[in-house]
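Cross-check.
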Amino acid sequence: MAKGFSKKDLVLLGPGLAALALGAVLQLPHVHVPHDVALGMRWLGVVLLAAFAVQRRSLTPWIFVAMVAGAELGFDAPHFAVGLRVFSDIFLRLIKTIVAPLILATLVVGIAGHGDLKSVGRMGIKALVYFEVVTTLALGIGLLAINITRAGVGLSMSAATKAVQVVSAPPPTHWDDFLLHVFPENIAKSIAEGQILQVAVFAVFFGIALATLSEAKRGPVLRLCESLSEVMFRFTNVVMYFAPIGVGAAMAYTVGNMGLGVLVNLGKLLLTLYGALAMFGVLVLLPAAMLFKVPIANFIAAVAEPATIAFATATSEAALPRAMEQMEALGVPRRIVAFVIPAGYSFNLDGSTLYLAVASIFVAQAAGISMSIGQQLLMMVTLVLTSKGVAGVPRATLVVLLATASTFHLPVEPIFVILGIDALMDMARTMVNVVGNCLASVVVAKWEGVFGTELLDEVVLEGIEA
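Predicted model, tokenized:
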């Protein structure tokens, strides 16, 4: 981690983290130290980290410091912190204005600009094969983890009764509903509603149609899309200056609204999920990166910022523009970035898929229902079909979980218990979704043999150096 850090950076970073850790220890109930001492120690750590961020002159350290400061503010002044949610919402709204035009423009240019429709089809098949293999492994790891820890066994159901009216169970989602939903009926409506997959499907057909025209008729539209793409990347660079404020406000609201005590409540389930996600990273993502000779150190550095944004906001969509920019800067051609990452939002939900495997069996365990391996596998297949397209929406997996419970006649009360810690679980699974999709774009580029073959756009370069 210290690679590229100066001695002055380490002088600020080390003591800052140490002060935070010491302040947290002093806050423990059995430690008899005045509250103000622990409080002062933690805020000293925040100040030292902020000084470190100033020295680094990069957005990524500022986003990290904002997360820490937001969590501290949420703990110390929860009522004030909850009111900061508006700044998080502003950041999310700005990001949402970028996503659809960016995907539309970059995907059309990627398909029509090169004119090789066979390569587009080949790229799509490779991406879908990779998605299916990785998400299946995610399901398997989640299923194994929850069957080992048996976190739902013996859960008291009394805590669920207070939340029964919070969410109503939706009707079950069938595969034909999802298939129909993939295709847009009105592109303006799809853009307005943020239906990323529908926008991507429209862009693919539009790009194919554009590629079949003569150069005289294709040129003006192609140049328009190229200009729009450049503008949206520039727009992303401007909006990202607001990212530390938005991320800090999101973290402050989460901690202020729920309290750090939520880490204790249902801790076994939380640890099961975090442990399973860590196993997925080590046993699936890392070997995949090594198999395709991905430059791992450079990839981690590139994905750090979008992953941090995804973790703090619990919304994959908030990280999408920056993720696309960073992967292009890493060496993935724009046409692959524009195709694979948006497609991954519906077909490569590694973190969400793993979470659904853990949570669905947790519900059965909490209800005292014994499910055979065959029944569990059938539930996993159902989850694969019903979980498509939920990565861009905070906590939308909860709705999928309710639909699955309805399909398999499971009680909904254990799901309402999960509401208490769902925000913390959502942050981790969303981060894994983003990292998995970024890695998928690099893998497909490596598989196609085009990684690092295109010159970096100066607008993208400007954004990653900000």
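Confidence is low (pLDDT under 50) at residues 158-172, 261-265, 391-395. The chain has two domains: 7-57, 85-464. Passed to J.P. for a second look.
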